[in-house]
Amino acid sequence: MGESSNPMATSSSSPSSSIPPSSPSPSPTTTTTPPRQHLLLQPPSSKKKKNRTNVFRVLRTVFRSFPIFTTPSVACKIPVIHPGLGLPDPHHNTSRITGTLFGYRKGRVSLSIQESPKCLPSLVVELAMQTTTLQKELSTGMVRIALETEKQPRADNNNNTTEKKTDILEEPLWTMYCKGEKTGYGVKREATEEDLNVMELLRPVSMGAGVLPGNSESEGPDGEMAYMRAYFERVIGSKDSETFYMLSPEGNNGPELSFFFVRV
After folding, report:
1. Which of 126, 136, 104, 107 is nearest to 213 (CA)?
2. CB–CB of 258/245 below 8 Å?
3. Beta carbons within 10 angstroms of residue 55's beta carbon
4. What is the pLDDT of residues 101-136, one digit of tens each?
5. Nearest to 129 by CA among 194, 67, 163, 178
């Protein structure tokens, strides 16, 4: 990903060469859905592995958690780990997951989170950003995206208001900020057949960027789908904050990309 200033525009690792393009529609007024491929993706593990961190990893997480804003007036709340504590917080667990950004060049980009490239997606979020816009942002070297949602209260049998207990990644809607500027809303969705087909095509790819053949019937001749896949470090700060940091290969000076999921 570091060989090009536009990671999602490269095609060196794309598996598209061995995949025939979709056949044309039999009628100009008829649209067809690409046939569902035989899926070899596995369900994610239900057991949460205990995460082991060393001092270096904890310190790296601390310093990388500081937010950077380009617009000071925006009240986007990104969690910050206090650097003066010294010892790791037991509530801050880390693990490595696979993240994939994909989308048609003239459409919105989506984020898929998987336990590994061989697993079914555990989260798919459609972001409030065009694919071409994200490509331009990545060429600047650092992109920080915050997805913020509000706590939902609920009333018990005694009419006492309590906080609704929902996993933060199960929230259906987030307000999205890119570099501190509000861009719209991120929407969680169930993985569609097209999403699953993309994940199946990329199952052999652990890290890389390129293009896949798209649906020419709906997107036209420029309907190629761009993608970028990488490992992300997942940091669980609390029940109301999770962060995903993109990990670059050793010696690679590629772009830095972070996703902050925050509930306020």
Report:
1. 104
2. yes
3. 9
4. 999 988 999 999 999 999 999 999 999 999 999 999
5. 178
